[in-house]
Amino acid sequence: MAFPDLTVLTDPVVFIALCSVFGLIIGSFLNVVIHRLPRMMESDWRRQCAELAGTPPVEAAEPYNLATPRSACPHCGHAITFWENIPVISWLALRGRCSACGASISMRYPLVELATAVLFGVAAWQFGPGFQAGAVLLFIACLLALTVIDLDTQYLPDAITLPLCWAGLLVNIPGTLVELPAAVIGAVAGYLSLWLVYWGFKWITGKEGMGFGDFKLLAAIGAWVGWKMLPLVILASSVVGTVVGIVMIVLAGRTRETPIPFGPYLAAAGLIALFGGPQIVAAYLNQFN
Question: What is the pLDDT of residues 78-101, one digit of tens each?
């Protein structure tokens, strides 16, 4: 029996195409995570509060997790069929509406799928076939999920940030992206840098400027890209956050008191450091030579 020739998978064009298609599929799953994980967290918090109060917890009618129940229209309860769940294509075919009740389906779903596909394709192009690219795809998927969850709820779930941090350290044991010492120092320095900013801001103003999830996310990013990239990550996230904040105040009428999630800017800066960090740092240092 002849086995198929798998060397074609190492062809750069084929590998980029496969990773992009894989990104569409993973993006569809990320939409489930983005929608359900915060609700799972809130349900768990209610259960814990009931236990502390000594009252019986309210049991859900059926299990609710990332696999159960099946995806359905939030307006009419129509169960999403297989063909209606094909990334991007099904949304276009349905013209962004539920096939049963005609209710509008948010454009965010295909946008998340497309963003995942594009970033997976870029990662495949830059890192090529191998373990390094596979690890980077995991990093990208987690950052995308955290970005949208934080935008929706201002949560950065420990269920993603903590495993992401540990995964970064494990991935870098053989020096996949950076040497292990740089990854360990990156995780510690990432957490402590925002921890110090948090307590300094609170001591000066009496207010909390960010959540603990931001510390954990920067620690995770540091575990993946190393401590040398942390100044770039912090600077880039601060600049982007400042610009977006000013635009939202001017155009959207938000006030300075309106909380703005910082996680998306950290995630964006983490991707900048991943794809172009060394080149950006080198170009900056060359200005002084």
Answer: 788 878 788 888 888 888 888 888
88: left (phi over 0), alpha (psi -120 to 50) or beta: left
Compute the distance between CA of residue 182 and CA of residue 269 in angstroms, rounded to an integer: 18
Statement: residue 126 has pLDDT above 60: yes
CA–CA separation, 107 and 97 (whole Å): 10
| Burial track 71-99 (b if 16+ CB lie within 10 A, e otherwise) | bebeeeebebeeebebbbebbeeeeeebb
Distance CA 164, CA 135 (A): 11
| Model pLDDT for residues 146-195, shown as the tens digit of each residue | 999 999 999 999 999 999 999 999 999 999 999 999 999 999 999 999 88
Q: Return the closest-CA partner of residue 127 out of 140, 112, 108.
A: 140
The model's pTM? 0.90
* Helix (DSSP H) and strand (DSSP E) numbers for the chain: 9, 0
Distances (CA, A) of 54 to 13, 45, 103, 148, 219: 60, 14, 42, 35, 36
Task: Kindly state the tokens that stand for 130.
Answer: 């191998």
**For residue range 69-81, what is the model confidence (pLDDT) as tens digits?**
888 877 777 788 8
